[in-house]
Amino acid sequence: MTILHLALADDWAAARATGDYRVSTLGRTLDQEGFIHCSRDHDQLRDVHAAHYGHVTAPLLVLQIDPAGLDVRVEGGFPHVYGPIPLEAVTAVHPYEPAAG
Fold first, then answer.
1. pLDDT tens per residue across span 87-96
2. What are the residue ranges spanned by the domains of the chain?
3. Per CATH, the architecture of 3-95 is what?
């Protein structure tokens, strides 16, 4: 099983420089929100894009995350990661395509 996270390319680049990912959702950090917002599948990811990222013109990426060893709680139907996501938990990174997810 994997979970997904929609990320700005710049936020992912910053995470690669520091060793872990700490952005909850657009404009909100893990420290501010208390968790990192994720999606269980591409349908949820498209909903997140429509609700929070529709106006964003910067490149977006889909992070595929292996939740093993992470504190993941499903709240309101969405997986939330409590704590930073280590780079090694990110199993793949793809450009986000709204039509395809």
1. 999 999 999 9
2. 3-95
3. Alpha-Beta Barrel (3.20)
